[in-house]
Amino acid sequence: MREILEKIAQRVSDDIKALPDSFDLGRDLGPGADGTPTCVIDKVAEDVILGCVKELDLPYNVLSEEAGFIDRAGDMTLVVDPIDGTHNAVLGIPFYSVSLALGKGSMKDVRAGLIRNLVSGEVFFAEKGRGAFRNRKRIKVREFDPARSTFLVYMGMYSHPDTMKVARGSTKTRSLGCASLEMCMVAEGRVDAYYMNCEVHEKSIRVVDIAASALVLREAGGEIVDLGGKYLDMPFDLRSRSNFLAMGDACVKEVVL
Fold it and tell me: Own/partner pairs for 231-237, CB < 8 Å, 24+ apart?
């Protein structure tokens, strides 16, 4: 599984880097299957992925942010966010990724997940029951220390008023704009948690954003829960949305929730 996901992510990276400087990455192509705007860079990356699936004759269905569900009569589904952190990419902020997960029907049964930072080239990978890795080196979450805590927090225009209470609960807070990579930062012990609480349900997280990084986090010893504190599972359905807390140490849940 790893080799296939790496090959697809590498192809996306190569094609994005080959785009000319004059290319308008942010041109709006209208709403995608999930109802959110599709930019040119999203479409370019998705076309590469769908091309790879066809070229390699992979026996998988595809669920993608832009194209929606593509039934290929497979037992498993490739869950794709072609570009996570699109706005970062358009602005030239070097923090965006391609996210690929392979599973049957929901986040809890994802068997393999890979996230590639399309600027630095860092690759995060996990296979269920076999641990999590960054560039093939095993990673794990860190122990929570309130005196040196760092939280990543969604602080966009749709953030719930409670968000600032959470932000003030850590010594350092950042909002970086790419959920998959932010969750990987929790997984490798750089930060303690990533918190998203949108007061508009339609703006909450989708399974395509975090299917891969949730597995990476869990295999690194962390956990992701809904804001009621329950284990977060999401079906492979673009209509499903959720707020959540991703954490390295279970103690964080008591502090935040």
Answer: 231/108, 232/107, 233/106, 233/107, 233/108, 234/106, 234/107, 234/206, 234/207, 234/210, 235/105, 235/106, 235/107, 235/207, 236/63, 236/69, 236/77, 236/79, 236/103, 236/105, 236/106, 236/207, 236/211, 237/207
Kindly state whether residues 42 and 10 are assigned to the same domain: yes
pTM above 0.85, yes or no: yes
Query: CA of 46: how far to CAs of 83, 157, 253, in Å?
Result: 8, 27, 35
- Residues of the domain holding 6: 2-138
Query: Is the domain of 157 the same as that of 177?
Result: yes
Tell me, yes or no, whether 27 and 128 share the same domain.
Answer: yes
Give the end of a domain, one of 138, 169, 197. Answer: 138
The answer to whether 146 and 122 have CB atoms below 8 angstroms apart is no
Q: Tell me how far apart the alpha carbons of residues 231 and 249 are, in angstroms, rounded to a whole number.
A: 14
Q: Are residues 120 and 6 part of one domain?
A: yes
Which CATH number does the domain housing residue 204 bear?
3.40.190.80
The pLDDT tens digits along the chain (257 residues) read 899 999 999 999 999 999 888 788 878 777 777 777 778 999 999 999 999 999 999 999 999 988 999 999 999 999 999 999 999 999 999 999 999 999 999 999 999 999 999 999 999 999 999 999 999 999 999 999 999 999 999 998 999 999 999 999 899 999 999 999 999 999 999 999 999 999 999 999 999 999 999 999 999 999 999 999 999 999 999 999 999 999 999 999 999 99
Q: Which of the listed residues 138, 169, 191 is the one where a domain comes to its end?
A: 138
